Amino acid sequence: MASGEFDRILGENARYARTFDRSALTAAPLTGVAIVTCMDARIDVEDALGLRVGDAHIIRNAGALASADVIRSLLVSQQLLGTREVIVIGHTRCGLHGADEAALRGKVADSTGTDTDLHFGAFDDLDAMVRAQVETLRGQPALLDTPVSGLVYEVETGRLRAVA
Amino acid sequence: MASGEFDRILGENARYARTFDRSALTAAPLTGVAIVTCMDARIDVEDALGLRVGDAHIIRNAGALASADVIRSLLVSQQLLGTREVIVIGHTRCGLHGADEAALRGKVADSTGTDTDLHFGAFDDLDAMVRAQVETLRGQPALLDTPVSGLVYEVETGRLRAVA
Chain A: nearest CA to B139, how far in angstroms? Predict the structure, then answer.
């Protein structure tokens, strides 16, 4: 199953491991923060937020949605590894911004022959979407009563702005 | 809801944005790869894999599990943004490795007063866990028939090794 990109990644990792010096870090994030953001390739979370290796849990999916899997991850983060703050970060020019759910289901059917009734998470208003994820997390009774903030990352400028 | 860490992150981001030069990137990942890995704070995905901003989708949750939300994210990644390869990366010393599901549910109940029947994703055999996630993704009829590989990242050494 290997590809050229897979082989390149393993080669780059061998270079990384040669000078690796982070073996003393433990699993608990040093800042006590868990980030929830999008999988988007243009967001280098550590660089954009000034985080170092070991600083924060970073949870990512399509759209930065507060899904059941994100809530599971935050429960593990809080109960096993002691984080006490959540920051949700949506971003401009997200693929799901203005996406057409029916068209996406059609693409899946056309390319794989599989019908799906999945909701992909398309949204129309970025700031409102981020606020809704923050509200979802604040409303989870199983999560600790900790700060939950919402930010938008602008892929055009690299800048964060607070929306919740 | 702001904290000292939140303010520090916004300050660091202002420094980042001052020299930001990635505004020309589009949403489609340049390598065509989607990474699925753990939220663990010790994994700097870009550094460890030799990826640059814009190269790859990075999906992260507690344990690198192939959850329904990961499958949703991969469908968006493939159908909207053209990725054609998946690499699943588990890691050593994961908080969920050998974790006790009942004890975790007890911690949630003790700290929040909320009973949950959630399965947190604890596992006993790291390599087998990664292989199982790879098999889950390979078996999804709605995903494209693309390479799916499995790696283990060693937080002690920074090294990746292939397991599937």
Answer: 12
